[in-house]
Amino acid sequence: MSESKSHQRRLKRSAAHERFRRAGNRVMLGLTGLMTLLAIVPLAWILLEVFMRGSSAMSIEFLTDTFKPTSMGGGGVWHAIVGTGILIGLAALMAVPVGILTAFYVSEHPNTTLGLAVRFGTDVLSGLPSIVVGLFVYTIMVSGQGYSALAGSVALAILMLPVVVRTTEEMLKLVPRSLREASLALGAPEWKTSFQVMLPAATTGVVTGLMLAVARVAGETAPLLFTALGSNNLSTALDKPIASLPLVLFKYALDPSRVRNAQAWAIALVIVTLVLILNIGARLIALWRTTRGVTQ
Amino acid sequence: MTFSASHKFKRVSSSRVGRALHASRGDIPFKTVIILSSLSLLGLMVGVGVMLWLRSGPTRETAGWSFVTLNQWNPVGEVFGALPFIVGTLTTSLAAVLIALPLGLGIAVFLAELCPLQLRTVVGFMVELLAAIPSVVYGAWGIFVFIPAFVAPVGNWLMNTFGNPNRFPYLPIFQGPFFGASNLAAGLILAVMILPTISAISRDVLLAVPRVQREAALALGSTEWETIWQVVLPYGLSGILGAVILGLGRALGETMAVTMVIGNVSQLSASLLSPGYTMASVIANEWGESRTPLYASALLEIGLLLFITSLLLNIVARLLVWSVARKTPEQRA
After folding, report:
1. Which positions 20-79 of B are in contact with A (Cβ < 8 Å)?
2. What is the CATH number of the domain that holds A215?
3. Inter-CA distances, A168 with A89, A98, A174, A252, B39, Å
């Protein structure tokens, strides 16, 4: 009698424990979903503020005028748009060829000592603070010769390099092995196989890599402080300081003038729009490419 | 006999080499070029270390170890002790990691274990977009929106509740004065900025945990959460640790956003609510003023310290992540 009572009590307790476990399960799983929602909040908040505040200060003149003092209306940022274009264009010209060649090596020799070292090095390089890269370029290109657009674009190129290598390598790996083997079997040398078979097959990879790399450096400010320096003049000279959108944004955001603060938001709108388009575009292209690759 | 055999061997092999060379004309230059460009990537990292080491020579010689232990930064008197900046960097980065770790882990679990497949890509992408927003935009948002709307009320509440030295004498981290721009503001913004790093890499680590581990736990009667907490997370622990260290490395080197919201006051303070200064922000802020060679060398030495720290953190973190999640099928897809 007493034995079955204690047995029943134990059963009751274990049923309670079971309920507790199931409740805990639901609570914790719900919590992870809540955390994910919580992470979307700052993203939505930033984008909302940038689009609302930025669009109220945005105008055609703001994009096409050059610098003017606030007493004359504040002018626009055409000089900085030109500067950023030159900086990023030059940086891409340097980073893309080196990145593609490195990706060739890494994707074809992934397990040699050098291949492993480079893949590891790419990961590590992408984690280096951009300010350190800026200081490095200062020591080799600026000190003694002066601030220059060229130095700025070298700094940006170093920051772009790991992104280009990574994405191109990923896409080269998706090219079917048989394609490469067929080319080699037909007697084509390796370089021809790489350039005329592998690279065209991985064009989307190179394009997305370039887009992501541009997005990565479009808003970079810290390394430009020690290299391109910034300028209020419209300049295209590569050996002179040059303006850039993020540098102007930084300066205007800390300016006591309300006009400048409003302009800072308009610049933020330009940069964020560019970065969003590049990121979303690259993601869509990559998605399209991988799904097509699977069905092939 | 031996002579003729070796002679024959030589002739065959040399003709084979010749044919191979002919077939792959241009391959040797090609291989040289791709190896050189690969080496240049590694050379870059060595170059950064060497150049910063050389150019920070003046302060390394005059200040020695006092550079990292001295709490005095006086460019006019040419006394350079970077302790307040080092402490500031550690405070803000650790605060950021403490906030971002539980959140990032929760997101990773949600994305890897619970989220429907169609939603996973979209939600994961949205979280990763947080990493795409430029630092300087975070800074502007911090000054004009985040500090007045969030940090100021939270900071004031913390100061009034826990900052009273009579009630909580052993809790100096919430003592005032508080003006908005503060270690707390920097730490919170850094937490948002490193969240995608921690969550994305942890998610990849969790996806790399073998399916049988989960099935075994579920078959033994575990609930889903018990499976995650007692089996999946411990299995991926080293990779998650790597993700956290990677986030820490990102936080250490963040410059613009921190410079814009931390207040830039060089002081040693135990309070999260007081304004501070970090290694990266002192370089960005004082570079234009550094006219003397010794001053420039001091800032470059701070850069060298940042480089060494982030290099070591990155190497350790990547090894940890690679040990779990290298080349998982999910990553390749």
Report:
1. 23-27, 29-31, 33-35, 37-42, 44-45, 47-48, 51-52, 54-55
2. 1.10.3720.10
3. 19, 11, 10, 37, 17
